[in-house]
Amino acid sequence: MSIKSLTPLEGRYGAITQPFGDYFSEWALIKYRVHVEVEWLIAMAANPDFAEIRPFTAEEISFLRNIVATFDDEKALRIKEIERTTNHDVKAVEYFLRETMGAMSLGDLLEFIHFSCTSEDINNLSYALMLKHGVNDVWLPSAETLVKMVSAMAEEEKDIPMLAHTHGQSASPTTIGKELAVFVYRWNRQLKQIRALEYLGKFNGAVGNFNAHSIAYPEVDWEQVSRSFVESLGLTYNPLTTQIESHDYVAEAFHALARFNNILLDFDRDMWLYISMGYFKQKAIPGEVGSSTMPHKINPIDFENSEANLGLSNAVLDHLANKLPISRLQRDLSDSSAQRNMGTGLAHSHIAITYTLKGLKKTVVNQEALAADLNHAWEVLAEAVQTVMRKFGHANSYDKLKAITRGKGISETDIKSFIESVDLPAADKQRLLSLTPAQYVGIASSLLKHI
User: Of the four, 127, 159, 373, 407, which is 20 to 30 A from 102 by CA?
Assistant: First the structure.
């Protein structure tokens, strides 16, 4: 981390975003390009249809794959040095491999490095692998940790009653656990889709037709060769493309991530409101300062920080999802420039998740405040009373309760006096008379079975 870092991703939040450097940095892009070039060379050598390429020995395969396994800053900087001459990033990778293999007596195979490939054959596979590995190795574990934590909180707090609010006004009571479980259920739907994402790859030449391939080796089933290679990398084969892979799967991935983000944004704002209402208290951490002038304050800054980063994440993800699937004719270079920012969208989401987790660890339920609010909201039982009255045929039950409760705060005595005045079967009347706002939570606790 440098104090002069241009963006907070490398500066203020560098310790949080550091794992993404292995997947979305310039270093990572170069490494994945080397990986794809090496695997293509190995795949060709293993295919007897390419008679001019001798098979590699086990030692040679180990040497080639070790270039990737031991990829470091020195190798990346050497490729960047070559790029200063070529002014072409993918060609620089090819020349690096020529240089490396030539020094290890593999000079007879140099012409088959990058054979029949256009740059986008290498790039699209590299970006697909970067995105797949970055999501699965870094973002997904972080998101799953958040969902597990909120799920555990929901279970622990499933029986704690809370006054609900619709339109910001007092409404039928619920439980804290059930309200948290709503978010868990929503997140789990998105995680299911994110885990099932397809990451597509194409490997079909300059305009997607295997032009050079079929001239060099007309008898080869190039579609099968291409499919086998793409799938060997752990990607899904796209058989019909222009020069570029169409990026529709990228849009699908980013839309799914943005939906997860939006649910988290909803959660952050609810937690912020619960804290402002006193339903959750924040722990005082020794040494921390809430305000530069008001000593008493403990601000919900972690949820606010998360909210800000979610906005930045969604701005990037939404732009890329809308931009990348659109390209002029066979392609234009704008997709290449845009794709370099994939990690930015994921990193801001990761930061947001990290700060929400931090905020949750500092919050505890304030049962006194919850009980006090419920005890001052006897009017919420009007729903229960009018519903039972309607069951037994009382005319205009809703309007009768509205007359004594709408916009008014009524007492326990008021609501019970009304219940006593209504002609109801003894058991039903007694059930209403013994009901309190804290007990009027329906089957909230049992709904947690759905998470």
Answer: 127
Q: Which of 340, 366, 392 is the last residue of a domain?
A: 366
Q: What predicted TM-score, i.e. pTM, was given to this entire model?
A: 0.93
- Which amino acid is it at 85? T
Q: Does 187 map to a domain?
A: yes
User: Which residues, in sequence order, are CB contacts of 217 under 8 Å at separation 6+?
Assistant: 49, 50
Reported as type and span, the H/E element at residue 92 is helix 89-102
- Strand spans (E) along 176-216: 200-201
Both tokens of residue 307?
A: 């909210």
As separate numbers, helices (DSSP H) first and strands (DSSP E) second, the chain gives 20, 6
Are 136 and 192 part of one and the same domain?
yes
pLDDT tens readout for residues 231-287: 999 999 999 999 999 999 999 999 999 999 999 999 999 999 999 999 999 876 665
CATH number of the domain enclosing 199: 1.20.200.10
The catalytic residue among 167, 292, 337, 434 is 167
Task: Give me the phi and psi of 175, to 5 degrees please.
Answer: -125, 155
Placement of tokens 């005595």 in the chain? 413
Rg, the chain, Cα only: 31
Q: Which of 291, 334, 411, 417 is catalytic?
A: 291
What pLDDT was estimated at residue 219? 97
Neighbours of 14 (CB within 10 A): 15
237: which strand partners? 201
Name the residue among 72, 52, 163 with its Cα closest to residue 115. 52
State the Cα–Cα distance between residues 364 and 134, nearest whole angstrom: 33
* 232 in active site: no
Burial code of 143-168, b = ≥16 C-beta within 10 A, e = fewer? Answer: beebbebbbebbbebbebbbbbeeee
Question: What is the torsional sign of CA 352, 356, 359, 361?
Answer: negative
Nearest Cα residue to 89 out of 134, 41, 27, 6: 27
DSSP state of 364: E
Catalytic, 334? Answer no
Q: Are 3 and 74 in contact (CB under 8 A)?
A: no
- Two tokens at 397? 């039950």
